[in-house]
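help with these tokens:
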Amino acid sequence: MFRRSILATALGTPAFAQARFPNRPIRFLIPWPPGGSLDALHRRMFEVVQQDLGQPVLIENMPGARGTRAAIFLVQQARPDGYTLAHHHLSIIRHPFLTRQPTWDPVADFTYIMQISGFVFGTVVRADSPYRSFADLMEAARRRPGELTYSTSGIATTNHIAMELLLERESAQMTHIPYRGAQEGVTALLGRQITAISDSQSWREQVINGDFRLLAAWTPTRLPGFPDVPTLRELGYGMSVTSPYGIAGPRGMEPELVQLLHTTFRKALQDEQTQRIARQWDMPDEYLGPEAYREFARERAVFERETVARLRLTID
């Protein structure tokens, strides 16, 4: 309590001094189902945050709506007091350009606190699949347009758009099967309901135990955990896809509060046990501070607007 009181005084705002932030648990919204690398990373980080701030960070999973439910809550209901934060990702920046309905300004309507990492995407098939390589899968998709299927965590997500770009390059067609999260795709592939997964690494355990085969990693370099698997760049596509993500709050948060939260989350990210989890899951280091993260969002919004228009994507 003494340390928090000093922090509040040093920040020099009456709101902080009176509230001694935080004096109650912080709510953290994740727009995906629980499980996997994201949950593991955040839960460890929040253990460190609790030690520093003296209050727990309570995770609330809000899957559905193409990963935008947390953003909707921030825009429509959250107060800019630091007690409601959310996992922030590229689909939130892209979403306003996919619909004619009013949504949000992807830069002005959020407070950017810290970029953390990026998703590790890959294309996976069953181990008993006839497709031994990514080229095999693309060739079959050309020969049998629309017959093969692939799953993602939602319509117009980063991995969905990237997979459609790859298919466009190959003059091939596959049928997209969107789910609420990557784990549902794993279940579907185990049940032989789909041909392939093109999603974040909820498939990791099944690749390790031999149930699935990883055909291509979408990261800039080969994954340490799967050194024999080629990247999209190595396969000649000249692209990598990580979909950077981070932590954001509602618009209007005081700069001193943003800096306090950033400093605390940055320390939690640098914690050795947190870094051990990052290495275990081959997670890329894509850290950015508040100003750089906001600038990234501003530049990315331009790219997303142009890409959505070129591909004629819509959710209306």
The domain at 2-118+243-311 is CATH 3.40.190.150 (D-Maltodextrin-Binding Protein; domain 2). The mean pLDDT is 92. Strands lie at 26-30, 57-61, 84-88, 110-118, 121-126, 149-152, 175-178, 196-200, 212-217, 244-250. The first helix runs from residue 2 to 11.
